[in-house]
Amino acid sequence: xxxxxxxxxxxxxxxxxxxxxxxxxxxxxxxxxxxxxxxxxxxxxxxxxxxxxxxxxxxxxxxxxxxxxxxxxxxxxxxxxxxxxxxxxxxxxxxxxxxxxxxxxxxxxxxxxxxxxxxxxxxxxxxxxxxxxxxxxxxxxxxxxxxxxxxxxxxxxxxxxxxxxxxxxxxxxxxxxxxxxxxxxxxxxxxxxxxxxxxxxxxxxxxxxxxxxxxxxxxxxxxxxxxxxxxxxxxxxxxxxxxxxxxxxxxxxxxxxxxxxxxx
Length: 264
Hints:
This protein has 9 helices and 13 strands. It is of the alpha+beta class.
């Protein structure tokens, strides 16, 4: 697999501008140009100006058309095949500052994203500036505008993702959920999910999951005649000992004594 260092791209480069925080470039690709699996050391945005190509990452295949804007995180592995027309891409690379990219500082998701063309005004203002004026200061300002908009959008998406994770943990108490599984379902990187979940709830996902299970256990203990073993099985605890220990740690009594105390 090929790794591309800062400022390096496949295809031929026709225009290039480097500023303090970004590298802007245009790359040209021949018809049917195929690029095998590769990744870039830095995260970057790519805007397709002409032509079209397919992008394959694992089993995910994306068709990219003129005007489409893609964000690829650092070390994102993908391959591309251009179609029958020549392709031209406008690339915006985020340089590293003290070993970290600007996208890291903005707490962006570490995932591939495809943006709606109509909602990215700052990017198209940037392209016009790049093609006509080549003004480095204006280019940086347009990018910082976009980063601010992007950060706001990400925060909204993160909130939705955390709420969805909470709903999963509250409603699916009949199984144990791993962090990576939850992250896949709510479409957010596990590192971000873990951090943001703790910020919102004050608990780790494991702690919150145990609390949800114990809350459901209380309902079963008070509203059914299930044995302790049956309740443990219903809530997918590893064994009865694990259930009893978890229940006592949260409510101060083992489940059998808890049931007796409330029903006596």
